[in-house]
Amino acid sequence: MEITLSPIAYINSTLNDKKECPKQGHEGGIEAQVIIEPEYLDAMKGLKEGSEIILLTWLHKADRTCLEVHPRGDSSRPKRGVFATRSPDRPNPIGVHKVTIKKITENTLTVYPLETLDGTPIVDIKVAMRK
Amino acid sequence: MEITLSPIAYINSTLNDKKECPKQGHEGGIEAQVIIEPEYLDAMKGLKEGSEIILLTWLHKADRTCLEVHPRGDSSRPKRGVFATRSPDRPNPIGVHKVTIKKITENTLTVYPLETLDGTPIVDIKVAMRK
Description:
Two copies of one chain form a homodimer.
Chain A: E1 3-5, E2 9-12, E3 30-36, E4 52-58, E5 68-69, E6 80-81, E7 94-104, E8 108-114, E9 121-127
Antiparallel strand pairs in A: 2-3, 2-9, 3-8, 4-7, 4-9, 5-6, 7-8
């Protein structure tokens, strides 16, 4: 079975180098823009400034052949299966990011805090669960 | 840009009909099994019984052409863009499910609570954030 996705948006960010990306949004994530592709603008209706959403990103620079990693890139720690980590390197590198919408314009969500590279494709947006 | 995913696991569940699925795990989700594909067993190392994980599912019965829905299928409520909902119907229907691992065997995670159909493909597994 093969699954095909098309990006519904892309990230505008000042983060341009994998090495300068924080590992998680709450560890120094910054404000970034989510630019929605024109054909998906109707799917944005009802999003509100101040609300929390989940962004699913396609981590396009990740190593998809990697099954085990040193947690947090620390080689003094024993290797662990990627499913037991949050490493971007994994067979299907989809990132899950909880962010707050700071501002909405016609095709752009300004969100915070986000730790992904400039140009990262977004494959889905959902409202965060309240609990 | 086109993105291709291969399932890394499939769900075994007693839920066989979309209509009988709860809308969210905490609204009557049940115990289910995640059966890992043989080539990804190394990526499971380090998962622990009792810990919380995020499953990303491919909602294979969803309507990918849908951009607006009545929230929670309630036609008395005005339509809203799918990105402002948790509807399974959306351009890239990836489900995000926080579950607890009840039991681990060689290729199987028994998890709770899960609200997805039997046979649903899993595209990623991550540890849940602590905060």
